[in-house]
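[Q] Does anyone have a clean structure-token version of this?
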Amino acid sequence: NYITCLAIAEAQGILITGSQDHTAKLWDLRTGALQHTLQGQTNYITCLAIAEAQGILITGPQDHTAKLWDLRTGALQHNLQGHTRAITCLAIAEAQGILLTGSIDTTAKLWDLRTGQLLFTLGAHSSPVLEAACSSSGMLFTASSKVVAMDLRGFMQHGVVVHTTLPVPGWSKEKHYTPWAQGILITGSIDTTAKL
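[A] Here you go.
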């Protein structure tokens, strides 16, 4: 079985691996020793995310249900059910305590990291949501054939998600988007181009 994704919890000194064998494993970065094997997904894990301040690991699988785990003990905290197809990406807004999940089902969902409660479903995409990222200012970005930017500050204050669609003209191949500091959005595509 192949390892499908990696994440590092630097403060805890842990490397996390997700695999085709439906498990995530937590490894001690200093010694290489296995600390925990997290079981419970029914399909392979496609993505991982860590909320270090909250001590939470999130696994995103092909089986539609993200899981929140205690990073220290490996105990399951919450099952996040709501997607109808594979989860493809995760992003965390730690300051706001919000997790974003993106899926092949063309939706992005916002979840409360503490309670596991579904807060909002964004249906602004017409194709699979392939990437998600969060800036330190509370902007969340999701990407499919277009980029959608959401300002979490308005959501936290008024319960309303304000989002803007950023078209990427002429791009039809798989893309990866990463927000960067100073308000710059960097995009990369399998057509070998990168744009700022």
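[Q] Thanks! Anything notable?
[A] The radius of gyration is 16 Å.
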